[in-house]
Automatic annotation (TrEMBL), chains A, B:
Stretches with biased composition (Low complexity): 8-19
Pfam family, one: Put_DNA-bind_N
Family under the similarity heading: Belongs to the transcriptional regulatory Rex family.
Species, as recorded: Micromonospora globbae
Binding site for NAD(+): G106, V107, G108, N109, L110, G111
Known partners and oligomeric status: Homodimer.
Protein name stated in the entry: Redox-sensing transcriptional repressor Rex
Name of the gene encoding the protein in the UniProt record: rex
Gene Ontology process terms (BP): negative regulation of DNA-templated transcription; response to redox state
Protein task: Modulates transcription in response to changes in cellular NADH/NAD(+) redox state.
DNA sequence: CGCGATTTGTGCACGTCTTCACAAGCGCCT
DNA sequence: AGGCGCTTGTGAAGACGTGCACAAATCGCG
């Protein structure tokens, strides 16, 4: 979760282009649609139906249509959506047209993996700088970037326009790092440290926490186990359970 | 999101103890409460009020009380919650009392970081095995664990009871790995690869996707930027916008 | 022993999200 | 040109989640 925008914003001089004020749930799904669309584009598809795109993205087709309708209907009835057009629209809405500069703070175990990850650049982000507090790490070069001391953050921020800060330090240091990021004007933070950050209004924080994900899975596992009154049918229940529409078999839409 | 339980499940022999069937949103917050509670316990607190715990966990106190009430009221009016008791309760509900074995598949960039992370053991999970398909990686030792070839998965799974599978392979391999995990009986998967997995009913999948998080942040950044069009009031609209209770200042509850 | 201060647990109203179901629109084929 | 099948876009209903506000419960103290 992140901070909230004031929902009942007044119609204050709404001469702005056309920011449709998307539902948060929709925003969270757009990136998934975008990835599915890129896959489709790469496999030569020119258009795609809501049904096809929905299964490729792992969602309900009605939901997908409603999501897309929020950003202004770029589909053609009887045909579907133009893949290229839709990619452009979503990227535009998400603000991915400008390559946003990302600052990564904490180049430890996890930070190294993130710094070496090429999945950022291909999605509209550019790691602009790496920071750490440990003098032993400062100067190290990763993927063409040199690790700088955290004290240099203000200077670097003045040069590059940092759009997003990523925190990969221990939890004990996370709040201070967040404060420093906010101080240099960063208004979006992705936090990997397992702690709650306190930030001023207007700053968005998203959190990724491994342990929480595992614990949620653990809960479901726990519950499944307590339901095992049924003998479980021996081994290969693999191909059983037609299930219906429920899950996923987006495979055919993307793969083939 | 993950797969769903069939909602309108028939009253199939429901003589189970007392699984309260928590709302999914509540389940997702329990780990956060748990972490806050551990922090409190470590700092010597015996009891905590809903208000205190709520701020420590970054949520609304009413929400917290409702969440806790779902698992059967272990608080005392006029006093608060007994920290130790609540920890026990939540851990019990989440099924953390048994140390669940985790299998990590894909020991690359990210997999290394995960394998070397000590935040698992301290939260009720034990990395039981590491797998990779690259012969060059097999045999490597990380944190006391030897990387095994993915083909050994069935044998290892027969020895250890793998509760959760973590996929940290490239997207192209993720579906196959998921299938292999399911084949050896894994019913909970945490997926780091940026793709939709297709799994049979009854298997839970959770996904962690960096790029999606960044893109969501990008959207908000984009929108914030487009709101700066209102020059009308002549400058620092920065500190405007009362907004309300929204944010956070859990700090004092944890840190100090 | 009773009273007031405090905090939990929850009924209720509200907002958000999801899903169904179908009219409106589009292209193709005859 | 007209009809037909397909697909989008959306109204409406229902499920779900949130937060207020307050009664019920408990403790401590006089
Ligand atoms: N490693 C993982 O797989 C993993 C998984 C989930 C969560 N996390 C979390 O991510 C964070 C980082 O984990 P890690 O394993 O990389 O830890 P780490 O100790 O390997 O790395 C932390 C790095 O942060 C640096 N640092 C400390 N204080 C700093 C400061 N004030 N300013 C700048 N840099 C500072 C340290 O010098 C170190 O290089 C932790 O909060 C951890 O809980 C890690
Ligand atoms: N590195 C990051 O910071 C990061 C961040 C977000 C997401 N991801 C995602 O996590 C995944 C892993 O990223 P990475 O940077 O570690 O990639 P990587 O290429 O460094 O590592 C992938 C590993 O998976 C192994 N592998 C490939 N096919 C396999 C198979 N069939 N069975 C078992 N192992 C197999 C490879 O041998 C390799 O060791 C990717 O999907 C990536 O998109 C990574």
């Amino acid at each position: 979760m992140s901070q909230h925008r004031h929902p009942g914003a007044p119609g204050s001089a709404g001469a702005v282009p056309a920011l449709p004020d998307l539902p948060e749930a929709t925003v969270a799904r757009l990136p998934e649609y975008l990835r599915a669309l890129h896959n489709l584009a790469d496999t030569g598809h020119e258009t795609v139906s809501s049904e096809g795109l929905a299964t490729a993205a792992g969602v309900n087709s009605a939901k997908l249509r409603k999501d897309l309708s929020h950003l202004g209907s770029y589909g053609t009835r009887g045909v579907g959506y133009d893949v290229a057009v839709l990619i452009g629209q979503i990227e535009s809405v998400l603000g991915l047209t400008q390559n946003r500069a990302v600052a990564l703070v904490g180049v430890g175990n996890l930070g190294h993996a993130l710094a070496g990850y090429d999945g950022f650049a291909s999605r509209g982000f550019r790691i602009a700088a790496l920071f750490d507090a440990d003098p032993a790490r400062v100067g190290e070069e990763i993927n063409g970037l040199v690790v700088r001391h955290i004290d240099e953050l203000p200077r670097v921020a003045a040069e590059e326009s940092i759009a997003i800060g990523v925190i990969a330090t221990p939890a004990a240091a996370a709040q201070q790092v967040a404060d420093e990021l906010v101080a240099v004007g960063v208004t979006s933070i992705l936090n990997f440290a397992p702690c709650v950050l306190s930030v001023p209004e207007g700053v968005d924080v998203r959190k990724v926490d491994l342990a929480i994900e595992l614990q949620i899975l653990s809960f479901h596992e726990h519950r499944k186990a307590s339901l095992t009154g049924l003998p479980a049918t021996g081994g290969s229940a693999l191909t059983a359970l037609p299930g219906g529409l429920a899950a996923t078999d987006s495979q055919e839409a993307i793969g083939t």
